[in-house]
Write a structure and sequence with these properties.
heterodimer, A: alpha/beta, 8 helices, 6 strands, B: mainly alpha, 9 helices, about 0% strand
Chain lengths: ~210, ~200
């Protein structure tokens, strides 16, 4: 009798099929857990807030593999991880709980060294050698690029040390911000000079108050 | 060059969930969705770079739905009609149960054709590749399915008397219709009452 009276049109009907964001978020968490359980989480990542802007944190089964500043274009960083490590890249915040917690403590001035497994597979050769030595520069101290070159046993490789610092895949955690120019000026930094100052000021302040 | 799998999830999560809800129903859709994306993540590195990701996902979802349906049949509970349950799918009221009940009532081929063509947006040629048969048959099935959905959803009262869907405000005179109704009412009422707008789907 009233066959067409309340006939919903096709697009209205299809719109009714959309899932609510809560359901999709819950399913995503389920996928993170299942992928982790089945060993498919080749690269887990999350994004956290920090005093130097939003940081992307990425981790493999071996450990933390990438820290990227906001100005480094997180989408592009993820693309690179997908190409160089594995396309199985999934947002899985809980996989990075330990990293996020230690970073929080660091930014609060309550942590001076990081105690995290690291995956250094994104850098090679001399660059990786330099990055392995950077944690030897104590919290709140700085060295010049030339001093770091001597530290790694290659005093002439000042420029290469600069490149190694600039390409550090794990800034903050691997403290390339503690390397300055010989004249005491900041030098370059992946997160920008302002971020480098913030980190150095934080460490200087915490050293004073902490003794 | 393959994009991060997270982007595949972001772009297709909603579509795959619609497909799963249409094919296996709202209750089992979460399992079907999870198994689809887990299987997809496992196979992702071997997927050709130029593949149609959506068609690939729908194909996986299709197979997972068949597996789930078979598994369900093996230990099926013999009831005439599924009772409504307290929400197992997140926020009560966030899911249009009237729509999914109507989709669920379609014959298998129609349901699949509607899911894969209308909900997933695949052309009939690809729908036919997934479900078998000709593109023309897929087109007919989808068209018949939509027609049936329109009829059911535009006349909720007619559907209601058959699917134990009489609301709390139903005519008391219909109580004698079936004892199933009386049994289903206590579990259904809290779910409905909790929704932000019980009459939402009826008013359209």
């Amino acid at each position: 009798m009233k066959d067409t009276a309340a006939d919903p049109d096709l697009s209205t009907l299809l719109a009714r099929a959309s899932a609510d964001p809560g359901t999709l978020a819950r399913l995503h968490t389920r996928l993170e857990d299942a992928a982790g359980r089945d060993g498919l989480l080749d690269v887990a990542y999350t994004v956290v807030d920090s005093p130097v802007g939003r940081l992307l944190l990425a981790s493999t089964e071996k450990g933390l593999v990438r820290v990227a500043f906001h100005n480094q274009d997180h989408d592009q960083v993820l693309d690179t991880l997908a190409t160089t490590l594995s396309p199985r890249v999934l947002r899985a915040p809980r996989r990075l709980d330990d990293v996020a917690r230690e970073l929080d403590q660091y930014f609060a001035g309550a942590r001076r060294t990081f105690d995290l497994p690291l995956d250094l597979s994104l850098s090679h050769g001399f660059r990786q050698l330099v990055q392995r030595h950077l944690p030897e520069i104590a919290y709140g101290r700085t060295l010049s690029y030339a001093e770091v070159a001597r530290l790694v046993g290659n005093p002439k490789a000042v420029r290469a040390v600069g490149t190694a610092c600039a390409t550090n895949p794990l800034p903050v955690v691997v403290p390339c911000h503690r390397v300055l120019r010989s004249d005491g000026t900041l030098g370059g930094y992946a997160g920008g000079p302002a971020a480098k100052s913030v980190l150095l000021d934080l460490e200087a302040a915490a050293r004073h108050t902490g003794g | 060059m393959k994009k991060p799998f997270e982007r595949v999830v972001e772009e297709h999560a909603d579509t795959v969930l619609r497909v799963c809800r249409a094919v296996v129903g709202v209750h089992d859709a979460d399992d079907a969705w999870s198994e689809t994306f887990l299987a997809a993540m496992r196979a992702y590195p071997d997927l050709p770079d130029d593949a149609n990701v959506e068609a690939w996902l729908v194909t996986i979802a299709h197979r997972k739905a068949i597996d789930l349906t078979r598994a369900g049949q093996r230990h099926a509970v013999p009831v005439a009609d599924l009772p409504e349950r307290p929400s197992t799918v997140g926020l009560p009221g966030g899911t249009d149960h009237d729509l999914w009940r109507a989709v669920r009532a379609l014959p298998g081929k129609q349901r699949q054709a509607v899911a894969y063509h209308h909900f997933a947006g695949l052309p009939y040629r690809e729908v036919a590749e997934i479900v078998g048969g000709t593109p023309e048959a897929a087109r007919r099935a989808a068209s018949d399915g939509i027609k049936a959905l329109r009829t059911t959803l535009s006349e909720p009262d007619r559907g209601a008397s058959q699917t134990a869907d009489a609301g709390p405000d139903a005519d008391p005179g219909t109580n004698a219709e079936a004892s199933v109704d009386a049994n289903a009412t206590p579990t259904r009422t809290p779910t409905r009452a909790a929704g932000p707008s019980p009459a939402r789907t009826r008013s359209r």
